[in-house]
Amino acid sequence: MSTRKIAETYHSRFYGGDTAGARRLLADHSFRFSGPSAEFDDADAFVRASGHAASSVKDVELRKVFADETHACIVFDLVVDHAVGRLPMVEWYRIANGRIAEVHAIFDIAPFMRRQAPAANQAIDPVCGMAVDKAASAARRAHSDTIYYFCSHHCADTFAGNPGRYLARSGK
């Protein structure tokens, strides 16, 4: 399969909700993901943590695909089930031995942060900036006598590793 086809197939599967099919295209031992609010060195951990984001996708509007022998770049608009609505994105892929060894996602997280104050039953996940229903949050963590709510266990664990980093970023 060509580099372009690998990237397009992964992209289609991931944003189409087939995370198991997308996972099969990721390298097992040398995978790396980096984005504006998360980094992973393990493909399985990446798929587990990012599945919630893929599930909020309503549509993907492809703009352009660039590819050579080892790299592919997909420019697209992601239409999400969130107040943000449409999110312009770029994903750069490095392919090695027929699988995706690296994904770098580029998008502006500011629209997720520019929300009005959350309703009384909502909180803002300090790691990714998503609005979280307090009663249905995936995880909670206490820090300095305050309870923080998270969209996923990954975000909660990331926060627990360095709360000051995320509280400083959110102005708390």
Report on this structure:
There is one protein chain. By secondary structure, this protein is α+β, with helices and mostly antiparallel strands. It folds into 2 domains: 104 residues, Nuclear Transport Factor 2, Chain: A (Roll), CATH 3.10.450; 55 residues, no CATH class. It contains 6 helices and 10 strands; from the N terminus they run ααββαββββαββββαα. Strands 2-1-6-5-4-3 form a 6-stranded mixed β-sheet, covered by helices on one side. It has a two-stranded antiparallel sheet with strand order 7-8. A two-stranded antiparallel sheet has the order 9-10. Helix 5 packs across helix 6. The protein is globular, with a radius of gyration of 17 Å.
Short description:
The protein has about 170 residues and is α+β, with helices and mostly antiparallel strands. Helices cover about 30% and strands about 35% of the residues.
- Mean pLDDT, as a whole number? 86
Q: Just name the CATH architecture of the largest domain.
A: Roll
The whole-angstrom Rg is 17 Å
Shape: globular
As laid out across the biggest beta sheet, the strand order is 2-1-6-5-4-3
CATH class category label of the largest domain: Alpha Beta
Instruction: Please state roughly what percent of the residues sit in beta strands, choosing from under 5%, 5-15%, 15-25%, 25-35%, 35-45% or over 45%.
Output: 35-45%
The tally of beta strands, per DSSP, is 10
Number of helices: 6
Distance between the termini: 48 Å
